[in-house]
Every structure is written in structure tokens, then in C-alpha cells.
């Protein structure tokens, strides 16, 4: 059973860059059957997909955030990472990493989430 | 971007009752790439239904999904105490997944 775990600072200052890492265990990160993504949820609100990274390094980002989001992968460490630049209070949210199953295009495994607050 | 609208926003029911949750898409989506998730307070979402109607591993058969085109439904045949939660729908079209705003199923 694959497990995902997010890590990173819980507090980021406005205009700075939010950086999070997701560690994958219990299964391969280099998989042609899955890709790896980030999803966020502002407090009390719904889910917003940020982007995904695929085997081979191709990425796909939410058009509304594309200019600010970068997802990368380190297969040797079985980790993938999120960078979100120029953050504002609107970026305060629970950030989840998740695995996308490429057959049905759904997120079949999720990390527990990490709360990131943007505040000075 | 395809917008998913879930209704009702809140559903107040008693244990043992049937729950019917709706998700409407702003344009037609493939049921093959349509999913439902359950989220309990303080937890990450959990995949319930994929491919429009297939239950994920370990999901009890009281949960069922149906629909096609722009209208999809999640049905819980008989609510158990652990089913009171928020439910989200999700679609994947043209490389962009989107989620509905959620339906909260609360104890009446």
C-alpha cells in the first residue's frame, strides 16, 4: 500500500516562495501507471488541483496558477516537490500530495496534508 | 475549465436513510474519468468511486455511482454513522482535473 507524506514549512511570508516535499513509500515512484500531484484546500473550502508530474518528468499545471507553480521529482529519494512563488494570504491552505491513477484519472492515494499559512 | 456543481450543499439525514448526492458538469465529461471522494474532518479525501460507477478498494457496496454526460449521482443506500462526511466529485478532461464544491451529509 503506497503511502505519501508531505513536509515543509507551515508558515510562509507574503511574496515569498512556498516549498513542499512529498515522500513516497510502499511503492515505486517511477511508474508508467501513475503520476504525482498536488492539491490544496483553503480552510472550510473545496479542493483545487495545482499540478502533476509524470514518469519522464513531464508536467501539467492548473492554468490559473501555471505562472507560479513548479513541480519536480527526485526519483533517487522517492520524493516530488512543489514550489509556489509570490504567495499571498489567498494561498493559505491545506496542501495535499496525491497519486493520480492514469487508467481512471482519479487520485487514488493521498498524503495526510500539511497546513501552510501565509502571513507576515 | 469544466465546472462541477454539487447539490445540495448540505443533506440532513438520519442513520439508515438513503442519501442521493448530485454533481452537474458545465459540459459533457466522460464517465470513465469521473470520481467521488469522501472527506472526514481532519482527514484527507478518500477515493470512493472511480470510472463513474466502480467502487474503490475496500469501499462497501452501499455506495454506488451512476450517471453520464453532465449529470452524475452518488447514492448511499443506507447511511451508517461513519458515512456522515463531506463528499466531492471530480472529473478529468483535457489534462485538467476539477472538483466540485462538496456536499456535506450531516446527522439530522
Question: What does this molecule look like?
Answer:
The complex is a heterodimer of chains A (120) and B (108). Chain A is built from no helices and eleven strands. With 120 residues, chain A is an all-beta fold. Chain A has strands at residues 3-7, 11-12, 18-25, 34-41, 48-53, 59-61, 69-74, 79-84, 93-101, 106-110, 114-118. The radius of gyration of chain A is 14 Å and the shape is globular. Helices cover 0% and strands 58% of the residues of chain B. Chain B has no helices and ten strands. In chain B, strands 2, 4, 5, 6, 8, 9 and 10 form a seven-stranded mixed beta sheet that branches. Chain B has a three-stranded antiparallel beta sheet with strand order 1-3-7, with no helix packed on it. The relative contact order of chain B is 0.34. The interface between A and B is medium-sized, with 20 and 25 residues.
Characteristic terms for this protein:
heterodimer, A: 120 residues, mainly beta, B: 108 residues, 3-stranded antiparallel β-sheet, 10 strands, 58% strand
Quick overview:
The complex is a heterodimer of chains A (120) and B (108). With 120 residues, chain A is mainly β.
Explain the layout of strands and helices:
The complex is a heterodimer of chains A (120) and B (108).
Chain A: E1 3-7, E2 11-12, E3 18-25, E4 34-41, E5 48-53, E6 59-61, E7 69-74, E8 79-84, E9 93-101, E10 106-110, E11 114-118
Parallel strand pairs in A: 2-11
Antiparallel strand pairs in A: 1-3, 3-8, 4-5, 4-9, 5-6, 7-8, 9-10, 9-11
Chain B: E1 4-7, E2 10-13, E3 19-29, E4 34-39, E5 46-50, E6 54-55, E7 63-76, E8 86-93, E9 96-99, E10 103-107
Parallel strand pairs in B: 2-10
Antiparallel strand pairs in B: 1-3, 3-7, 4-5, 4-8, 5-6, 8-9, 8-10
Amino acid at each position: 500500500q503506497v503511502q505519501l507524506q508531505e513536509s515543509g514549512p507551515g508558515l510562509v511570508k507574503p511574496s515569498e516562495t512556498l516549498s513542499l516535499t512529498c515522500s513516497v513509500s510502499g511503492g515505486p515512484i517511477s511508474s508508467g501507471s501513475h503520476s504525482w500531484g498536488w492539491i490544496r484546500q483553503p480552510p472550510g473550502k473545496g479542493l483545487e488541483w495545482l499540478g502533476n508530474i509524470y514518469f519522464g518528468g513531464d508536467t501539467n499545471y492548473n492554468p490559473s496558477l501555471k505562472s507560479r507553480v513548479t513541480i519536480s521529482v527526485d526519483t533517487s529519494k522517492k520524493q516530488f516537490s512543489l514550489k509556489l512563488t509570490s504567495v499571498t494570504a489567498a494561498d493559505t491552505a491545506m496542501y495535499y500530495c496525491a497519486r493520480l491513477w492514469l487508467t481512471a484519472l482519479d487520485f487514488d492515494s493521498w498524503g495526510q496534508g500539511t497546513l501552510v499559512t501565509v502571513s507576515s | 475549465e469544466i465546472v462541477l456543481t454539487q447539490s445540495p450543499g448540505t443533506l440532513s439525514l438520519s442513520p439508515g436513510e438513503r442519501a442521493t448526492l448530485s454533481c452537474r458538469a458545465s459540459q459533457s465529461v466522460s464517465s470513465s474519468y469521473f470520481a467521488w471522494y469522501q472527506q472526514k474532518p481532519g482527514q484527507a479525501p478518500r477515493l470512493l468511486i472511480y470510472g463513474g460507477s466502480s467502487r474503490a478498494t475496500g469501499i462497501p457496496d452501499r455506495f454506488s455511482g451512476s450517471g453520464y454526460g453532465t449529470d452524475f449521482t452518488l447514492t448511499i443506500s443506507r447511511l451508517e454513522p461513519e458515512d456522515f462526511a463531506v463528499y466531492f466529485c471530480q472529473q478529468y478532461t483535457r489534462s485538467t482535473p476539477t472538483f466540485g464544491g462538496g456536499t456535506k451529509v450531516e446527522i439530522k
